[in-house]
């Protein structure tokens, strides 16, 4: 089970981090923000892409949008989102619970600078009703992520 691989990951790498499992779905940014009582931007969404001949995970603020030009400039190719079956096979996590922890395969992880806007972010923890709370810096350190700038933030009205 996917949450179990995340649980094992934290037991080994950060036993002080606990997984929050809720009765309600947190599969979307809005559902997760509401359930956890945080701003949508604090939800750290993990997106899976194929860029040229490699698969990558990008963790970004929940209210940020991928900027295709920045992706091309940063990674040297066009990004294509992976389908749900491929994501599950590569990560062991279902869409709605995808996170950079306890992965089934060794994937490079990139954290977008949009996460720096918050002291605490909540990435999923392997299921559509689980998450962990940690700082963006701790998140990046745990998964050996590189920081990138590949998103654009929403316009403030």
Q: How would a textbook summarize the main sheet? A: 6 strands, mixed
Helical content band: 25-40%
Number of domains: 1
Order of helices and strands: HEHEEEHEHEEEHEE
Poorly predicted runs: none
- Kindly name the structural category: alpha/beta
Please state the second-level CATH architecture.
Answer: Alpha-Beta Complex
**Total beta strand runs:** 10
* CATH level 3 topology: YbaK protein
Overall pLDDT level: 94
CATH class: Alpha Beta
Net shape: globular
* Estimated share of beta-strand residues: 15-25%
User: What does the radius of gyration come to?
Assistant: 14 Å
Number of helices: 5
Cα-to-Cα separation, first versus last residue: 42 Å
CATH superfamily: YbaK/aminoacyl-tRNA synthetase-associated domain
Can you put this structure into words, describing what you see?
The chain is α/β, with parallel strands linked by helices. It has one domain (2-152): YbaK protein. The protein contains five helices and ten strands, in the order H-E-H-E-E-E-H-E-H-E-E-E-H-E-E. It has helices at 2-13, 29-36, 68-75, 84-91, 136-142; strands at residues 20-21, 43-51, 54-61, 65-66, 79-81, 109-112, 122-123, 130-131, 146-148, 151-152. The strands form three sheets. Strands 2, 3, 5, 6, 7 and 9 form a six-stranded mixed β-sheet that branches. It has a two-stranded antiparallel sheet with strand order 1-8. Strand 2 and strand 3 (54-61) form a beta hairpin. The longest helix is centred in the first third of the chain and has 12 residues, at 2-13. It is globular. The protein starts with a helix and ends in a 5-residue tail after the last strand. The relative contact order is 0.25. The mean pLDDT is 94.
């Amino acid at each position: 089970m996917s949450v179990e691989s995340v649980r094992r990951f934290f037991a080994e790498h950060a036993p002080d981090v606990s997984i929050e499992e809720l009765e309600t779905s947190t599969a979307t940014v809005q559902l997760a923000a509401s359930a956890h009582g945080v701003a949508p931007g604090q939800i750290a969404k993990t997106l899976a892409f194929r860029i040229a001949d490699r698969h990558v995970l990008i963790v970004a603020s929940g209210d940020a949008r991928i900027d295709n030009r920045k992706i091309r400039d940063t990674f040297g190719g066009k990004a294509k989102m992976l389908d749900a079956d491929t994501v599950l096979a590569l990560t062991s996590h279902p869409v709605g619970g995808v996170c950079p922890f306890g992965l089934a395969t060794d994937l490079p992880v990139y954290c977008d600078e949009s996460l720096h806007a918050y002291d605490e972010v909540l990435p999923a923890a392997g299921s559509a009703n689980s998450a962990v709370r940690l700082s963006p810096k701790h998140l990046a350190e745990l998964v050996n992520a590189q920081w990138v700038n590949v998103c654009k933030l929403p316009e403030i009205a």
